Amino acid sequence: MISIRSKLSLWLTGLVVIATVVAIVFFESMLRQAFHDSIIARLQEDLQQVLLATHRRGHTFSIDQSQLSNFYKPVYSGRYYQLDLPGQELRSRSLWDQRLVVRGLKKGQKRAWQTKGPQNHDIQLLSIGLGSDLSGVHTTLTVAQDLSIGREIFSEVYGTKLMVNLVMLVTMIMGIFLVLRQSFKPVNQMKDTLAKLREGEISSLDLNTIPLELQPLASNYNELLQYSSKQIERSRNNLGNLSHGLKTPLAVMQQQVEALGLTEPQAAEALQKQLNLVHKIIERKLAAARITGDMLPAAQMQLPKDIEDLTHTLDKVHRTKNIKCRFNIPADINRLPMHREDGMELLGNLLDNAFKWANSEIRLSISKHNQQLLLSIEDDGPGVKTEELTQLTHRGKRLDEATMGHGLGLSIVKDIAEQYKIGLQLEHSQALSGLKVTLSFGD
């Protein structure tokens, strides 16, 4: 889906381009009309000047050259006139041996048109009909102007205007992108702030650093965070109270079962199984309730610090063993995408299991593969039979009763992995021959 910034950029750029094209076309039309009007206005003046210089004596017409502009003297100067008489033509010297093909007009009629003139140039012509109905003499006076020079000026002016408009268009488009970039900068900053919030670096959004338009959204988000945090805290407190509240009744029931075992062993054994089942259910639900998932912003696991702290603690717990832990964590991977508390419980159980079974070495590796973050823990212990691998995550299932533990570690790992949708794979370690557990974070 296209972003709001891209939409605004495309729309504004399109509007500016359309407005510029319309302005250029409109200016070209106005400039061409103004050019045409100026030519006609000049020809009107030339027509009046030639009329004033035209004299009639009987049936004879003459034009006084001293009353005319010097533009009519140079050959092909671009300014021409021609007086068409019955059987005679009076032409300006500038026409030289050329003549204008003119249609005769009645007295008072005017005609303006364009045609090819001397040197095959386009010329603008203006004709007027002269003469007297009494004398019966009718003449047509025509003045003309070469359009080539004017068109050159028109092209220069229009070309300059076009270049200015194109430069302005490019400048405005660049301005649009710069303005939108600066305008959306607070949105990008808010995105970074949300990332910090997710990683637990901050606990709420700072409304003073957020634009006014986004402050209501940020304020509601802060309220939602506070409400969710309180709900989670209340739920955990209630679960803690529940666990403590159940301890006393269960202890009393346990005593009654033990007393019953003296008189009715079979009934006591049946009740003991049910009590054990209740214990396991309570432990399972409490462990699942402690898993907050990634719906609330909280500090994520820091790598390699938190893992080193875990192994340091486990070294003390298993001090009777001389276990060497090797880490392969790239420098650019410094966090795990999960709640720190859940991550510590997840990896703590996996590493504790590895410490229990390892002989001398444990390896923890993290890598990236196709947008996935892969974390593997392997040990050099005796390993597990292939047919028994799937049983490891069953709650309370222990494949070796001689090893201390309650069989809950890997089942808790499975619960946390399911909550975060983390891939969990158990297999034989090719490098150390023991058990290898691989966690896949991401899609």
Put simply, the count of helices is 8
Q: What is the residue-averaged pLDDT?
A: 82
Widest sheet, order of strands = 4-3-7-6-5
Q: What share of residues is helical?
A: 40-55%
Shape: rod-shaped
Q: Would you count the extended β strands for me?
A: 14
Low-confidence stretches: 291-297, 395-407
Sheet-strand content, in percent, reads 15-25%
Order of helices and strands: HEEEEEEEHHHHEHEEHEEHEE
Q: From the alpha-carbon coordinates, what is the Rg to the nearest angstrom?
A: 49 Å
Task: Compute the separation of the termini in Å.
Answer: 20 Å
Label the structural class: alpha+beta
Largest sheet features: 5 strands, antiparallel
Which features does this protein show?
alpha+beta, 443 residues, 14 strands, 49% helix, 5-stranded antiparallel β-sheet, 5-stranded mixed β-sheet, 8 helices
Mind explaining what this structure looks like?
The relative contact order is 0.06. The protein has helices at 4-53, 148-183, 185-199, 215-263, 265-289, 305-317, 340-357, 409-420, and strands at residues 54-57, 60-63, 79-85, 88-91, 110-116, 122-132, 137-146, 300-302, 324-328, 335-339, 361-369, 372-379, 423-428, 435-441. The chain is built from 8 helices and 14 strands. It is α+β, with helices and mostly antiparallel strands and 443 residues long. A 5-stranded antiparallel beta sheet has the order 4-3-7-6-5. Strands 9-11-12-14-13 form a 5-stranded mixed beta sheet, covered by helices on one side. Strands 1-2 form a two-stranded antiparallel sheet. The radius of gyration is 49 Å and the shape is rod-shaped. The longest helix has 50 residues, at 4-53.
